[in-house]
Amino acid sequence: MDSDLWERCFWLWGLLLWLSVGSGGDTSPTQQPKCTDFQNANLLQGTNLKVQFLLFTHSDPSCGKLVEESSDIQRSGFNATLGTKLIIHGFRALGTKPAWIGKFVRALLRSADANVIAVDWVYGASGVYYSAVENVVKLGIEISRFLSKLLALGVSESAVHIIGVSLGAHVGGMVGHFYKGQLGWITGLDPAGPEYTRASLEERLDPGDALFVEAIHTDTDNLGIRIPVGHVDYYVNGGQDQPGCPSFLHAGYSYLICDHMRAVYLYISALETSCPLMAFPCTSYKAFLAGHCLDCFNPFLLSCPQIGLVEQGGVKIEPLPKEVRVYLLTTSRAPYCVHHRLVEFHLQEPRNKDTRIVVTFLSSNVTSSVKITIPKQQLQGKGVLAHPDPQCQIHQVNLKLQASHRVWRKDRTTIAGKLCTAPLPVHDNKKMVCLPEPVNLQADVTVSRDLKITCV
């Protein structure tokens, strides 16, 4: 081979090398870590704990950076001056990545200037549920060790927010217990019920695990825990049988998981929209629907709690009360938000039997109804109605007196009374709006009236 050919080959090899390294010629080892995804485990691989901590930042919300050592954390874009949010998933029967995790991470990063770390423990969470339960303490220890590295970098304990889903909620409680309740915030999204309803405080999530602990209950009759476990416990639609979820077994997997996972999608929706998911303390769901709990004076001194990234859930009193049950209604689809209203009907004359009236609000193509019962010999009945549109968009109200069950002849009962309504929370009667004229109702006949309410 002549010297010119050697020269040309050498020059071409040098050019290819230069292009592969980059025109800047920087080959320093401080390049950004590559993106890492969740692990996948099968039934045979599960039960062994194999934890990954994946950091997501504003600069690349879709790229999870594997952080294990302090050096990984420092060069991954972690900002010790910001708050840190850890997401802990729950039981993964098939050993797969949670389908909701990407949307959850992005919603958190859009809503808060914070580091978001997803804890991937798919290996230890798959297979048999009871094996996953046995891994809770071990996982709590691993997360606590990881947190100690963050604290060494200058992160404040009070700036740590753990968001645990199902079994992950109790993992968060375990971590909080190891830190003697000094972590800032723990959110339990439908904390797991099996094996935990009768567990000790050391074994499950409880108000002593952080400075503020909240839980959102959506499946208390199946996979979620029934008892309150936080300072504030939201029982959404009573805590079970969520609207839009299948009610029959033939729906398969969706029947089993829909109510349980609604807490996750509610929380994501609360991050993505401005409509507040506000709740009201009450002794029971039945009492709430009956209109017996209309404000948040007791015990929150009028600061009604709401789901989302609101400091202490919007509760402004100290010290925080514990295990307060609060109730709210939602729609069947995102954004789930409704406007709660008190509805009252006042009879002109008492009756010798219970009076039942169905009240329906209409706005555009949306309708919402509530049934009011006026006990015999009383003049007033009330209930809580949830409507997806603001009050000024409600333009009509329909009223219908329910007929008595008479086999031999038609019920021709007539009554007269006044309808009034007010938005929750009701702190006084100044916001009460009543129809200008009394309404005459005949059994099983719908009466329509225009309803004009100004927006606040």
From TrEMBL:
Binding residues for Ca(2+): 204, 206, 209
Give the residues annotated as active site: 166 (nucleophile), 190 (charge relay system), 260 (charge relay system)
Please list which residues make up the signal peptide: 1-24
Pfam families registered for this protein in UniProt:
Lipase (PF00151)
Any single GO BP term: lipid catabolic process
Which intervals hold domain Lipase? 17-336
Q: Molecular function terms in GO for this entry?
A: metal ion binding; phospholipase A1 activity
Per its record, the protein catalyses: 1-(9Z-octadecenoyl)-sn-glycero-3-phospho-L-serine + H2O = sn-glycero-3-phospho-L-serine + (9Z)-octadecenoate + H(+); a 1,2-diacyl-sn-glycero-3-phospho-L-serine + H2O = a 2-acyl-sn-glycero-3-phospho-L-serine + a fatty acid + H(+); a 1-acyl-sn-glycero-3-phospho-L-serine + H2O = sn-glycero-3-phospho-L-serine + a fatty acid + H(+); 1-hexadecanoyl-2-(5Z,8Z,11Z,14Z-eicosatetraenoyl)-sn-glycero-3-phospho-L-serine + H2O = 2-(5Z,8Z,11Z,14Z)-eicosatetraenoyl-sn-glycero-3-phospho-L-serine + hexadecanoate + H(+)
Location in the cell reads: Secreted
Q: Which UniProt keywords apply?
A: Calcium, Disulfide bond, Glycoprotein, Hydrolase, Lipid degradation, Lipid metabolism, Metal-binding, Secreted, Signal
Listed under GO cellular component are: acrosomal membrane; extracellular space
- Is-annotated flag, keyword Transit peptide? no
Q: Which family does it belong to?
A: Belongs to the AB hydrolase superfamily. Lipase family.
Q: What is the protein's known function?
A: Hydrolyzes the ester bond of the acyl group attached at the sn-1 position of phosphatidylserines (phospholipase A1 activity) and 1-acyl-2-lysophosphatidylserines (lysophospholipase activity) in the pathway of phosphatidylserines acyl chain remodeling. Cleaves phosphatidylserines exposed on the outer leaflet of the plasma membrane of apoptotic cells producing 2-acyl-1-lysophosphatidylserines, which in turn enhance mast cell activation and histamine production.
Q: What is this protein called?
A: Phospholipase A1 member A
